[in-house]
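Session log. Operator J.P. requested a structure for one protein chain; no other inputs attached. Running the standard single-chain path with token output.
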Amino acid sequence: MSPRRPNDLRSRERRVQMRNLQRAEQNLRANLHLHGVDEAARPHMERALAHVREAGIALQKLGQAR
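Structure written below.
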């Protein structure tokens, strides 16, 4: 078995990061759809969701995120 090349490892790590970001987005969306979400918490979750989306864009399109 040959040792992993750095690019293979980076690619695998990006896939893991994307999967984690997708889970975070799903969980934040689910929280926002719950009844009785605290009014003070909602804007924070909405901003967190926006940040998670931006992080996903940054991973998919390296160098093109803001």
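Operator note: Residues 6-32 form the longest helix (27 residues).
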